[in-house]
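Onboarding guide, step 5: your first structure request.
Type a short instruction followed by the sequence, for example:

Predict the 3D structure of this protein.
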Amino acid sequence: MPLQDLTPQLRTRLNRMEKAVGWFVFLAAVLLLFGFGYYIYHTAERKGWFLIKAPFFTYVKSSEGLNVADPVVMMGFPVGQITRIHAMPPGDKHNVLVEFEVRDNYFRYIWTGGSYVKVNSAGFLNQRQLEVTRATNGYAIVVTQPVSIHSLDEARSLMTAAPGHWQLSQDVTNANAEILFHAYDSLEQVFDATNAALLATGILESNSIYIYNNTVNRDRVVAAWDGRYHRYKIFKPGDDNAYLHAVETPPVSEQLQGMISQVQNALPGILSLTNKLAAVLDNAANVTSNLNSTIVAAQPLVTNFAVISGELREPGGPLVWALGTNGNAQTQGALTNLNSLLSNTDTNLGALLINLAGITSNLNAQVQANTNMLGGISKAVVDADDLVQGLKRHWLLRSAFKTNAPAKK
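The system replies with structure tokens like these:
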């Protein structure tokens, strides 16, 4: 039905419906744009599009397992990604150039006193990953404070105008390569009157020094430390990125190949060892067989020893085992006879003593009764001695009483 054929009420309602649909489409488009913008913002924030990124590069032996956009980690956190992998030209001492970025504020952990790149294995499919180690001393490799070059007079003027804001961006050395002033030292320390003679011995490029204002920061990396010249190098368009040394572990395939080679080299020795082990086991089987036979043969000996030990544990067992079954009775009889003999000996000894006492008593009585007995006995002994001496002098009996001749004087 044509629109002009509609009644005024229907036209009014249709116009209102068209406006409602128009507003709905407009709000839907706004919400869609808002959601798309939020998604882009969230993705940019997650990937660090709004953060400062520090560019670095390193050299590796092989690009195997490394790909552009692979994450770079530090302390287990994803801190950046690989931006470029490129083979070096023929004749170069390096094989592969790898460039990568590290987001703020993780690149502020990268210092000269121990930061480097570790190329680690990240899986069993020859995947590898870059890991940047943090350091706790030295100089920051990249900085966001702009570095400027000034003469000594200009640097002294800047120090006077803004005291405490200016610091060195280089090491000041003397002719012997000894560091007189370190980077980050304040200009007040450098231009102190007590250090004037020390500063005079320093070697400066064109009588100028590299300094920076510690209150000024840029939204990008503006300089990197150059260890060859002991100063920060100002970044310019087309300049190389900051360099980090890489410590590369062999890929998993090379490690497996090395393990296989070691196993192949050790296999003959393993086979020889197994043969020797088989011989040892055979000998051990023979020994155990012989030992079993020995144990069977020694079983009667063990039984007899058990019987003997049982007999020895019985009361009087050692005597019975040594003298036989009749030994105990014989020993008991011998002890009984010995006891009787001792008893009789005691009795006889008593009687003997009594008789001896009687004899001595009689003798005493005889001596007491006959007082001349001792004198007679003494005279008899003297007469007997004279008789013997006379017999010695008789010619017939002289040879029977041989005496030692007296020694001649």
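Each response can be followed by summary notes, for example: The CA atoms of residues 164 and 209 lie 17 Å apart.
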